User: Fold this.
Amino acid sequence: MDVKNVTVVGLQWGDEGKGKVVDALGRTCRYVARYCGGANAGHSVDVQGEKFALHLIPCGILHENVVNVVGNGVAFDPAVAWEEIEGLRQRGVKVDSTNLKLSACAHVVMPYHKLQDSLNEQMLGGAKIGTTNRGIGPCYADKACRSTAVRLGDLLRPDEFRTRLRGIVETKNRMLSAMHDATPFDADKMADEYIEFGKRMSSMICDTGSLLRKACANGERILFEGGQGAMLDVDHGTYPFVTSSSVTACGIPSGAGVPPKAVGHVIGVAKSYASRVGQGPFPTEQDNEFGDAIRRRGKEFGTTTGRPRRCGWFDAVALRYAADLCGADEIALTVLMDGEEQIDAFRICTAYEFEGRRIDEYDPSLPLDKVSCVYEDWPAWKAPIGTARKFDDLPPEAQAYITRIEQLLGRPIGVISVGPPREATIMHHCALKDLK
Ligand code: IMP
Assistant:
């Protein structure tokens, strides 16, 4: 199979284990590019027992010879990025302008965005979104507003930037003090700090869209690394309980500055159950001993915020929708569980019921908090599966569960992850398994 580019995208509410899949395939690519989200993401990679949690830097940074790109669609927080770069360097990972390229057009998350984010949430009280408090929503809101936005390339023109920032900070201070009685920000101090970030990163800041389009023209493989998950997409997710960017594969062309056909072979990543952090509808949620057992077994605590994740059964209705939306060619099924005493059966939601009607096809306008789920029960397996390296090594019950998911989603399960380490991976029907 002649595969040019690869896209790895989450099909649930984030935290699907995309980092591991990107890590596994990243070594075969020349570029790994982020196109959405920002430091709200937390991608975990386990390299021979050494754990890395990446928020803004693409997971390809852990491979030599991969050029990592932060695309224009990312909400870029220089403070978080710099800490991450320094942390990686201290652990012996090379990060410089040869292997990290930052889009001059990426929007910058500023200190007032983070304050706005937490104050908005406080003001909403019980109706809050449950954001990661990373300033993501306010940064994208300013992007759409235009006059109050800052882009990464602006930091490289200090005088112009300082003048503009004074105006922006004045607007923000007025709003924040009127609405929240907040202490005003000092524009010049902030300008100094962000001009300094610009200096430190200047050699990495460039026109990443042009770089990626040239890579496409030269046949150099790009892996697009999705953030969050399709059900958190600002257009197609469980709105308004979503993030503020286009996180599905549909967001790649505009978020990376490449033509739509550059998306390539799409791997949709899904856990063998479901989880969600923050508020919002979650039809298969198990707020009970089953949810507790899944959380315990799957170590479901946020990489970015440490929050316990809400857990529930596999939702094939939402998954089919997300896979169709992203054009998933295959599925990577992650965090396959084993040996949980409390669980005798794994349940799969195959349809919803709403006002006495059976709903087989996901409808984003449906009041998802009011649907009930139609389940199939599949016998759980108790034997440990962490050492399985082939599909046949898995207990028959696990094989049956995976095969049923494959049928329900109408596409092959390409990759099965049976544990955090790189090698705890089964290449099942993966079209890329022989990719060099
Ligand atoms: P925000 O992106 O910080 O504005 O958060 C909006 C919603 O998206 C909240 O429910 C967050 O918990 C969720 N969210 C954002 N990023 C991630 C992620 O990387 N994984 C899981 N949930 C996320």
